Amino acid sequence: MALKDKVAIVTGGNSGIGKAIALELARQGVRIVIDYVVDPAATDALERQIAELGGKSIGVEADVSKIADLQKLVDAAVSGFSRLDIMVNNAGIETRTSVLDTTEAQYGKVMDVNLKSAFFGTQIAAKQMIKQGDGGRIINITSVHEDWPMPGNTAYCLAKGGMRMLTRTAGLELASHNILVVGVGPGAVATPINLSTMNDPAKLAQLDAAIPLGRMARPEEIASVVGFLAGDGASYLTATTIFADGGIMHSSVGL
């Protein structure tokens, strides 16, 4: 396998899209550092799943809004597996608040977890990859909302828009080091962040009707895109976003 024995960090890695990414990469032979801030039992269970696949992983409790904790993740990859090849900036939160209602605390937390972590995660991972001298991949899990407004979720959209420009600018800056930086922009995905919609039949029906493919994505479908981007088949992709949205960004049906 092309990715066998590569090493990846997945932030927000013990649930939702992050968990699916960790499992997908592990199936391809990648050794995984699983970042988490809550639910250590879920991390332990994921480590067992990866072991059952014949893979290797370590769980690291780290708050990605803190630069020291991002460094801790990279240090864990190097001490546990001797290197770092793939950085997946996946951790994200939202407040579902409008520009009129978002508090300073809400704004700050969304920016710290979604955007600051991606910026400094990219920086710290890139420095390690440059030290190793043989390139690497940085994959930012953004959203259709890096480009598509979502009234009532303003801070989240701002953070994802920032990740769009981080991906493009860092991709250009790091190209000479053979470090590729690509975003993955999911549409609606069946994960815990969307439980309020998934548990409301009327809201779910409205959402499904707005998606040309007629359903939310499964986390595994987003993870498969990440698996492709981490491999040799994506060796000429950088400074751009791949949208996996079921066509919703081009739908004429409003939400």
Automatic annotation (TrEMBL):
Domain of life per record: Bacteria
GO molecular function: oxidoreductase activity
Keyword terms: Oxidoreductase
Gene3D superfamilies in the record: NAD(P)-binding Rossmann-like Domain
SUPFAM superfamilies noted in UniProt: NAD(P)-binding Rossmann-fold domains
Pfam families, per the entry: adh_short_C2 (PF13561)
Family that this chain belongs to: Belongs to the short-chain dehydrogenases/reductases (SDR) family.
NCBIfam families reported in the protein's UniProt record: PRK07231.1
Protein name from the UniProt record: Sugar dehydrogenase
Source organism of this protein record: Pseudorhodoplanes sinuspersici
